Task: structure prediction
Amino acid sequence: MIEFFAFPFFQRALAAGFIVAVVCGALSFFVVLRRLAFVGSGVSHGAFGGVALAALVGAPPGLGALVAALAVALATAKASDDGELTEDTAVGVFTVAAMAIGVVAISFLETNVDLFGLMFGNILTVDPKDLLALGAASLLVLTLLTLYFRPLLLASIDEDGAFAAGVNVTRMRLLVLVLLALTVVVALKVVGILLVSALLVLPGAVARSLTSRWPGFLLGSIGASLAMVLGGLLLSVALDVPSGAAIILTGTLCFLGSVAAGRLRRRA
Amino acid sequence: MSVAVRFEDVTVSFNGRTAVSAASFTIPAGKRTAMVGPNGGGKTTLARVLLGLLTPDRGRVTFLDDAGRELPRPRIGYLPQRSTLSPQAPVTGLDLVGLALAPGPGFGMSRAVEAEARRALSRAGLADELATRPVGRLSGGQRQRVLLARAIAGTPALLLLDEPDTALDAEGMKTLRRLAAEEVAAGRTIVYVTHDSDAMGGADAVFRIDGRVVEETRS
Result:
């Protein structure tokens, strides 16, 4: 397996995996804290409609995914802020609408769309241009997370307390959803639409089982994400299985291990 | 500087039902004011309007300085009746008070903020070793002291206490009465929502709220 490290495609895959793992791990902290697992799943599925529409009009798929993911995220935020729908109902409605638009768009396409790649991703096909876009989008997400970490954390654990302290909690909710949409697009190429939501939940869930303080939770989430993505990638090469599925299965094993470790720690 | 609060013609409705109708009154600066009234009478609604958590359908709330000039909304120390703080929140009392003191953009806590947070926790009666324990591992009473520390931290011009006698245990209420006396002596305005105006050891002004301000008593 060592010889794989000499191949440029594998080096790019490792670099892409590292970037995606850090971004998803950092955001997973807030996804688990704010119980946004379903919203994350909805936003990633909503991106499918955007990719299909982009293919229909000849636009870059990444742009289509970004526009659709942002549209689902913003529509969800608006509907739940207005009090018309709860967040999970809103995301349920907008997600299926975006997916239906995607299916209709695909039916008009004369060429075949790589649906398997779209659904499960393929990190081994990341090219230098993808890597550059990945790096730029990830830098944006990580910069915003670092800049707004304190108000985001306070608004995530105690909304009324945050408001009383002067935090614009509506803006913070919106920021998390926008970051979620950006991260979904970042991770799409690596793990695909179906599995990106797992990458947004599993790292945070692993870290949450092991620690009760935010610094350990945040670092643990990034560490678990790195272990999942890089471990899964090596596993996919060693066993010759799809990379996305290998990453998520590695994450699931990490999660089960962390739950067992957490129980042992509490008993001790 | 002490801050007074003026409610002008404040009306709030929920789903077509009027909770508070045309409430107009002024909370005096640097005093203890109680808002009393029956359940559903609208006193908590007015407290949430004061805090800015609710926008009235009609009317407005203004903050005034000693000379009666309008001020921007000051920082308000708030002790909720039922906190939205998640018991599983991955923070310590020190983290929470520090975050509330410096909630602006950034990462981590400065030494000055940490020192002020520790001072507030100590004033609220939380032992130093408990200040660095995750809130999920504190008892209900200890968690209430963390929330009390958050309310008084950073010397806010106005302290709003929503039914403190149900939020705090007997020992916590004793601490709160002592703190309230210290804060009023320092010129801070204290407003509390309660069923019992004597809960805080007496009030300088009492507004009875039942859908509107039905009675005003000043001592």
Q: What stands out?
A: Residues 170-185 of chain B form the longest helix (16 residues).
